[in-house]
Design a protein that fits this description.
By secondary structure, the chain is mainly alpha-helical. Helix content is 58%, strand content 0%. The protein is built from 16 helices and no strands. α12 packs antiparallel against α13 and α13 (249-257) packs antiparallel against α14. It is globular. The two termini are 16 Å apart.
Length: 307
């Protein structure tokens, strides 16, 4: 189980780093990604990761240090935004518009539960990309207290992404990740008849667009209908499409990042799923050894695994 918990965070960073070099590129306009590359819009070195992993590390540090405190989570995101804390290279070189606006609101009102926009037009993927520390730390609530892991997942979204699409995506993804960490089979977890999905809807109905994905909309689609978009709905759908029938961790995340566009985030979301399913031991040695600043990931894991 700890192998799968570790895999969820390391998988996030691997997918993020694989996609970083082709972020914002349209599908079909770049040579397919097969390993880490340097370059991309942020001119990173091969194996370096972006804001997805930085925000996950900030969330993990908050949970390990403070317990559950939305304001503390937002404060650590602000530290990253303002000073490059949790960054692979000490700089905040990439921050989403929705995230930036929300954190500036937090600096004014100091209430993280109110800082994220609730508008449907602000439904980016910035809260599902960093989600792994929540199911890693709180997987013990699964399966007997899905209401609690659902609540924590929703609250983790609020500092930056408070739309119903975003919080529903977090609720669904965190529950699925917790189940995979517990060793439930992939087909079972992704089934439209999965009992925990019914429980989630009994607690509070998922947004209809997220419910459609949870029912398996991605199974009947292929690119270009599947898109590595920054919209949380398309992003979650693309990540599940890449994961649901892949035979290895590597196949899943490479399918995700080769969709292009918001490639690092599609990779990070798929990497959480694939890492929780195959575990750290299912991630190839080349991908693990080539990942930048593994010390930062190990520090985060020691905090949330031992918290």
């Amino acid at each position: 189980m700890n192998d799968r918990r570790r895999g969820a965070l390391i998988g996030l960073a691997v997918g993020d780093a694989l996609g970083a070099a082709v972020e914002f590129k349209s599908p079909g306009t770049f040579a397919p990604v097969t390993c880490y590359r340097s370059g991309g819009p942020h001119r990173l070195e091969a194996g370096e990761w972006t804001d997805d992993t930085s925000m996950a590390l900030a969330l993990a540090d908050s949970i390990a240090t403070t317990g559950w405190d939305s304001n503390d989570q937002a404060e650590r995101y602000v530290q990253w935004m303002q000073s490059g804390a949790y960054s692979v290279n000490g700089r905040c070189f990439d921050i989403g518009i929705t995230t930036s606006a929300a954190l500036h609101r937090f600096l004014q009102n100091k209430d993280a539960t109110l800082s994220g926009s609730r508008g449907e037009s602000a439904s980016g993927n910035g809260s599902i990309m960093r989600l792994a520390p929540v199911p890693i730390r709180y997987c013990h609530f699964y399966p007997n207290n899905i209401e609690e892991i659902s609540r924590l997942a929703e609250e983790s979204s609020l500092p930056t992404h408070a739309s119903e699409q975003c919080v529903s995506a977090c609720r669904y993804l965190a529950t699925a990740l917790a189940a995979l960490i517990h060793g439930e089979g992939r087909d079972e977890v992704l089934s439209q008849d999965w009992q925990p999905l019914q429980q989630l809807n009994q607690i509070k109905a998922l947004h209809p667009l997220i419910q459609e994905i949870a029912q398996g909309s991605y199974r009947q689609k292929q690119p270009p209908a599947i898109q590595g978009s920054g919209w949380v709905v398309k992003s979650l759908e693309a990540s599940l499409w890449a994961f649901h029938d892949a035979e290895t961790f590597e196949e899943a995340v490479l399918r995700a990042v080769n969709l292009g566009d918001d490639a690092d985030t599609t990779g990070a979301i798929c990497g959480q799923l694939a890492g929780a399913y195959w575990g750290e031991s299912g991630i190839s040695e080349s991908l693990r050894s080539g990942l930048a600043r593994m010390d930062m990931l190990e520090n985060a894991l020691s905090g949330i695994l031992g918290a």
